[in-house]
């Protein structure tokens, strides 16, 4: 039953996107939106906020740093072709985003035609205002508006459910694998408690000021904190664990070693790019605004606390490990920076499947 739900929630949005694309392409002024979408503004590349938003978006859509990929991949066989899966997933994600852009900007061109303004003026609406105000307003003026409104918002529901499935599975798998004896026989109760906690935490987004809460979480919940986490992951795997050892592990799974291009990306290009974006975002912070309302300083401080909450565990554990490891400081650093090798046994399970041969 669960697999059926996942298949429906994962494929239905593509059906709706194609329907909305065909309908949007037939609207007057749609070509204006497409031209605006495909004509690049090179000056935007000099803005740090653009790079941070782009990186956060690609990380949010692909899932690195959130634990979702690790959780779902833990159910794969040991010799699963993860190289193929990574390439296919990345291509599908980027092509889906590219297709969604046509769906959005054909309607924005139509709205610009109706309002007799430039597409850029309509496209200034961002976040909740674009999704829940501008786009529904355009749908309401179409022939057959009721049908398009139903499938559009049903698509939004399925997208939310699909994202929730992945996010919850990451938390469930990680905690269940950490405490299998305690939670193994109480999985349903644990999942119910996790869902209830998530539900109560999301109630603030349903208030009159909920859109401002969503903007705050969007800005600080999955921005530089995720980039910093992935940066440390890349450093830990490529530098401390060792790129050669990592490539040997990949070879034992796939039968071939990753090419030099991927190795250079893992060791140098990706960490350098992430470090540049993180540092630039701190040096040139953009003001937090929504609906012409500028957030006060105290709310920005709360946002920084939210951002730090998902990152602070890493330096805390680093300090804990360094303090409790016996030996001199030099010896403790050597031990902490050296990966611990554990014997791999077929009886050990991770994510519900044997760890491998």
Task: Walk me through this protein's architecture.
The chain is globular and about 75 Å long. Helix 12 (224-254) packs antiparallel against helix 13 (260-283). By secondary structure, it is an all-alpha fold. It is built from 16 helices and four strands. The longest helix is centred in the N-terminal third of the chain and has 34 residues, at 82-115. The chain has helices at residues 2-25, 30-38, 48-62, 68-73, 82-115, 119-123, 128-140, 145-178, 180-183, 187-202, 210-221, 224-254, 260-283, 297-309, 313-324, 329-336; strands spanning 289-290, 293-294, 349-350, 353-354. A hairpin with a 2-residue loop joins strand 3 and strand 4.
Q: Mean of the pLDDT scores?
A: 81
- The structure class reads mainly alpha
**Treating each run of at least 4 consecutive H or I residues as one helix, how many helices?**
16
Order of helices and strands: HHHHHHHHHHHHHEEHHHEE
List segments where confidence is low: pLDDT < 50 over at least 5 consecutive residues.
343-357
Estimate the strand proportion: under 5%
- Please bin the fraction of helical residues: over 70%
The rough form would be described as globular
State the strand order across the main sheet. Answer: 1-2
Give the C-alpha Rg.
Answer: 23 Å
Question: How can the largest sheet be summarized?
Answer: 2 strands, antiparallel
First-residue to last-residue Cα separation: 31 Å
The strand count comes to 4
